[in-house]
Each structure stands twice: as structure tokens, then as C-alpha cells.
Automatic annotation (TrEMBL):
It is a single-pass membrane protein. The chain crosses the membrane at residues 22-40. Belongs to the YajC family. Keywords: Cell membrane, Membrane, Protein transport, Translocation, Transmembrane, Transmembrane helix, Transport. Its main location: membrane. One of its GO terms (cellular component) is plasma membrane. It comes from Kineobactrum sediminis. It is found in: Cell membrane. This is Sec translocon accessory complex subunit YajC. It comes from the Bacteria. InterPro entries: Preprotein_translocase_YajC. The gene is yajC.
Length: 111
């Protein structure tokens, strides 16, 4: 008989120790919050800054594309831009592929 009483007593102690489940939930929420502040939030900030830069493009800006091509913007469309990369050489790119807007006169100093 004492064998059954001991197991019942052990079950009663295990049922009252519910702090482990709460710790797991708090740990998962904390892990998600850490992931949000380390990965998701900075990426969204970079995306917003890039979208503002692409929206601010204007004719005559000197840019570098994500593929490394440097050129001067000669015309703009909603989704596309035409870059003058050399004398009589114009290339059409999507606006989202602009990596950076260069300071005026950069193309002359490079070539």
C-alpha cells in the first residue's frame, strides 16, 4: 500500500510545479523579441531607406547599380531608368537596382 501512496504524493508535487511551463513561454517570447530587434527591425529600416533613395532619383544624378555599373541618369520611368554609362552608350535598368547615389562630379574624377 505504501507504494501507491508514494506515487500519488509524487504526482501532487509535480502538478504544483507549473513554473517550468511559464518559463518556457517567457523564454520563447524573449527569443522572438531578441530576433526581432537583431534581424527584422534593421532589415526593415534598410528597406525603407532604400525605397526613399530610389524615390528621390532625378535626372542627372550619378549612381552606381547593384552590379557595379556607374552612370548618369538620363531619363526616369515609374519602374525603369536609363543610364548613360559612356559616350553614346545608354543602358536601361530597373530603379530598384540602384545601390547608391554618388556625389556630383564623381564620374569625371574616376575616368
Amino acid at each position: 500500500m505504501s507504494l501507491f501512496i508514494a506515487s500519488a504524493h509524487a504526482q501532487a508535487e509535480g502538478a504544483s510545479a507549473g513554473g517550468g511551463e511559464i518559463f518556457q513561454i517567457v523564454f520563447l517570447v524573449g527569443l522572438f523579441a531578441l530576433f526581432y530587434f537583431i534581424a527584422i527591425r534593421p532589415q526593415r529600416k534598410r528597406q525603407k531607406e532604400h525605397a526613399q533613395m530610389v524615390a528621390a532619383l532625378s535626372k542627372g544624378d550619378e549612381v552606381v547599380t547593384s552590379s557595379g555599373i556607374l552612370g548618369r541618369v538620363t531619363s526616369l520611368d515609374d519602374n525603369y531608368m536609363v543610364l548613360n554609362v559612356a559616350n553614346n552608350v545608354d543602358m536601361k535598368f530597373q530603379r530598384i537596382h540602384v545601390h547608391a547615389i554618388l556625389p556630383k562630379g564623381t564620374l569625371k574624377s574616376i575616368s
